[in-house]
Each structure stands twice: as structure tokens, then as C-alpha cells.
Amino acid sequence: MARNDNQSSEQSASVRETVESVWIAVVLAFVLRAFVLEAFVIPTGSMAPRLMGQHWQFDCPACKYHYAFGIPQAPGSPSPNIALPLPPSGRRGKDGGAPAICPNCGHQHRFGQEFAYGGDRVLVLKYLYRFGEPRPWDVVVFKNPQDNEQNYIKRLIGLPGQMIEIVHGDVFVRDGKDFNNDGVIDKKDFADPRAEKECPWHILQKKSPRTQQVMWQVIFDNDYQPDQVVWQKRTGKEWKSPWQPHSGPDIWEMRHGGRVFAFDGSEATSELRFANSTKADRERFCPVYAYNQSSQYRGKGYDSNVDVCYDLKLSFMFAPKKDSNARVGMRISSFSDHFRVWVSMDGNCTLEHGLADKDGNVRWDKKPWGSCQLDRPATGRAYELSLTHVDRQVTLWVDGQAVLSSTEDQYYAGRERIIRDAAAGAPTPTVSILASGGPAELWHISLMRDVYYTCLRIADDKPGRATTGNPFVLRKFNNKPDTDEFFVLGDNSPASQDSRLWDHHAPSLRPGYRDGTVPRYNMIGRAFFVYWPGGFRLPMLKRLPIVPNVGRMRLIR
């Protein structure tokens, strides 16, 4: 009898411990959700293609490049039911569909009813900014000031006490001071004569290479070569690579279906140039997104004559042949400035600069901007080379390490000069690959561009905030820090409703709120992880994307 009583007591204790453990887990979950961590669903495509709202996913029928195409949705309309096949809307084609355009090769994919994917689900560190100040380029979640209920996700650009202005896709800032000692940094302080000298303009650079890495977007990845049959069926023409011989001996051979460039060797320098002579070539460098409907670019201040992105990344693997004295070079341009780097088999690297005249002829400086000597590469090994021009800095990268960079003295990020040059027109960038000496092969050639922030307009007679010619001041309150003002932008700049365009606000916001800003009290936290990207669908359950896409789970930069 005693033994049975003991067993009963042990079972009761075990059940009690289990129940207590469950309750503790539940309580901890609520505590974590309330004070530490919370999950959010991305509602729109304003941060595409890095973070996506409801969208379709395609593998291009021609080149197999994978990309997303956003579901058009009118403001205030109910969310579409992604469990049902959705017909495209927007611009109508002959077959009644709006084409999705591949960002890599430009193939127009017309589709009928397709199953869609929900928005990315992200984890947000709440109250992080109670212990440390937000930093530029953070991806933040906040209460939408237009209704004070919906949660928005954008990239943080402007901080309290700054004047900001978008100039040709980049962001320029001035850090203010409280010159009149009234406890707030505002427009009056920037009007003080001392601000001209003590609060100069400077370009907002991305200090973290990881942040920059996630903001690159494809112009053309040479590994994704279009299928000739598919391409000819759509266009009636043969696919032609955008990389074509331009000067010097034409001794390049395209191998492995055009994916590998083989240089046979020559004492004279041979140049391959990325296409830049036609309107279609120029559009490759414009801030146009495969994610967007064409209607999202109309009537908002986007100008294809001016909005040409010069923040570029040209990269490839350099594989010289055995005992070769090969030398390879890369060239990119920004307005009239041209930049060229050389990497030789003896480890010598140089960075050169030149200026183009009105006829496009480039006069290269006699003295390089920089040079360095690397360890001589091992024979038979390939090296990853990249040339970047981003935020008015030029950098040569070898195997992921920056080995040469322009200095501010050499390449000054002059706001006034950029405004003047842009007003005169933005020429299509020059991008080239050069080689001389012994034979070599180039693999994995790709050309990318940075996010380009456009100067959209609120109305025909009303420019967007912080756009060129309309700088915007964010107030900083020394005694009321909870009302400090922030400025946010979406990476999908032409289609993002953000601080540039907000023209009304919720009456529930505190008195003194200004349209276009995010007050500190509306900040929720920093997004840091995509834990549930658009899921896969099983053949027998196509209506439900229930299989997690583990390969696209990622940290948010």
C-alpha cells in the first residue's frame, strides 16, 4: 500500500513539474514578446528585393535567374488571398497579363494564374534603442505615423539634429549644433552664420561592408546566360552578350556557353566593354526594379535622363595560366571621372584616375592615385577581384580585402559639384574589362549597382522631403529626447512610401509631430533576422506554402 502511495505521489509530482514547466515557458514567451523579441510580417515591397511583401517568385525562362515580382495592391485594399492562384494586374499585354521582367537579361515573362507567396516574417529586437542610439543604415520597425497602428519597416537614414538631402541617389548630411542654446537643434540653428563652417555637408557612407554587400543589386551576372531558343522565341533575335570587344586586339574567346572569358595573350591591351550605347543599355543602370509594376514609376519625379546609378561593383575570378605574365584591369566611370585599376601576376596593383572631356576622350593622370605590392599569386590559383565605386569612394578588393582606396582629398564628395553635374545630364557609365600579357581566364563575371534613392515628388508642385534642392532638418530635443525625429527610406526607392512622401499623420500622435518624421516614441526596434521567408508548396498542397525555405533564412543588414 505504501508503495502504491509513493508511486502516486511521484506521478503527481511529475505532472506538476510538467505543468509548471509549460507555464514557465508560456510566461517567458510573453515576457520575450513584450520586452525583448517580437515577430512581424513585411506588409509591402518597399524594402525589396532584400525584404519582400506579398509576391510571386520566378526563375527566368531564358536565363534561370531567380527573382521576385510584387503583387500590386491599392492603398487600403484588403490583402489578396495567396492560397488561391492570383492573376497579374497593371499594364495589360496581348494575353491579358502584366509581364514580369527579369532583372538580369530583360526577358519578359507573361504568366496567368500563379500561386503567390506571403511577406517575409522577421524577428525584431524590441527596446534595443533604449540602451543605445540608432545608427544610420539600421533596418528599423516602427509605428506608421500615418495611422499609428500599422507597423512599417524601412532603413534608417537621418538622425536627430541633422539636415539631410538626397543628391543623385546618395544621402548628404549636416550634423547640427544648438547655436542659440534653446535646448533644441532645429532649422534656426542651421540658419546661424556659424553653421556654414562648423556644420559642413558630408556624404553618408556605409561604414560596414556587410551592409553594403546586401544592398548590391544585379545589373548582369554572366553566369546566367539566356537560352538561345527561349530568347529567340520572345524577341525573334539571337541573344548577344552585353560584353563586347571595344579596343585593342580582339582575342577574347567565350567558353562554357559564354560564362568564361578566355584571354589568349597579347602585348597590346585588349578591352571588353559593357554595352552602354543604346537606351536599353542605359536603363540597366537606372533605379528600375524587377519587383515593381511599371505604373509605380510614373508621375513621381523619376527622371531617366538624370537618375543613372554610378555606384557600381564589377567583379570576377582571375585565373592566369601557368607561368603567365598576365595583367588584368577594370574600369568604371562617374560623370566625367574615370577610374581604372590594374592587377599583375607579380602582385603589383595600381589605382588610376582620369577626366573625360566633352567628346568623351579620357585624359589619365600621369601619377596613379595609389599602388601596392601583394604577395606574388601562386600559379594555378584563381583570385577574386572587385572594383567598387560607392558613396564617392573607389576601392580595389582582392579576395574580399580592400587593398587600394581613393582618399577624400583625391576624390572629394562635393555636393555642389554633383548637383551641377547632374543638372547638365548624366552620361551612361563606362564599364570595361582589360587584359594584356600572357593568357588567363575570367570566371563568375558580374556587374552590380547600389541602392539609388530617387527624388520623388509629393505632388507636381511639391517636392519630396530631403530631395535635391529641398533639404530637411530633423529636430533634436535635449530635454525631451522621446520626441526626437528620425528619417527613413525604403531600399525599393521608386515605389516606397516613406519619409519623403508622408503628407498626413494620425491625430493620436503627440502635439508637435511633423509629417515625414518618425518620432523616437514610435520606434519599436531593429529587425535582425528573417525567420520565415516565402515557403515552398508541396505538390499535393499547392494552396499552402507550409515548407520553410531554410536557404533564404538570413540576418538583416
Set down the secondary structure blueprint.
Elements: H1 2-36, E1 37-41, E2 55-59, E3 66-70, E4 100-101, E5 108-109, E6 121-126, E7 139-143, E8 151-158, E9 162-167, E10 170-175, E11 184-185, H2 187-191, H3 195-198, E12 202-203, H4 209-215, E13 217-221, H5 228-235, E14 243-247, E15 252-255, E16 260-263, E17 266-274, H6 279-283, E18 312-320, E19 327-334, E20 337-344, E21 348-356, E22 362-364, E23 370-373, E24 383-390, E25 393-398, E26 401-405, H7 415-423, E27 432-437, E28 440-449, E29 457-459, E30 462-463, E31 472-473, E32 476-477, E33 485-489, E34 518-519, E35 523-532, E36 554-555
Antiparallel strand pairs: 1-6, 2-3, 4-5, 6-35, 7-8, 7-35, 8-33, 9-10, 9-31, 10-12, 11-32, 13-28, 14-17, 15-16, 16-28, 17-27, 18-24, 18-28, 19-20, 19-27, 20-21, 21-22, 21-23, 24-25, 25-26, 29-30, 33-34, 35-36
